[in-house]
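Team,

Forwarding the record for the chain on the shared tracking sheet. I've put the sequence and predicted structure together so nobody has to dig through attachments.
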Amino acid sequence: ITGTPAEYVLSYNPLVDFSYGQKINVTIDAYDLADPVNVMPQHAYSFIIEQSEITFTEDLSQVKAYPNPYKGNSFSGIIFNFLTEGSKIKIYTLSGQLVKEIDVGAEGRVFWDVKNEDGKEIASGIYIYVIVDEKGNKKSGKIAIIK
């Protein structure tokens, strides 16, 4: 391959967002800008996105909810991370109707399957989450659901 580094471009625009535990397959097809074009051998890579163990945090200031926006069929749900011990998550519609209530389990994160209290999938839209812990700390945010 000839040319300066400024002439080489590598772009990657995934069709979906990545999530923890997901296997990612990447295939690289490369060629240069010469005339005639020099084609490089194809390279394929696979990896799994892993997350280190998450424990409880002291407050709710670092709470993350992802993927956000949630795109249906891409993932199986939303993860709330960096929670405090004894937290409770309530998810509401924009009109204030309670959709789901989740008690935080034995670690500092929790998984929501994007279903309501009756086990039915929720509709596309914007939802509000409110997290309150045993100390009275509170954190709220929005989640976009796209199906």
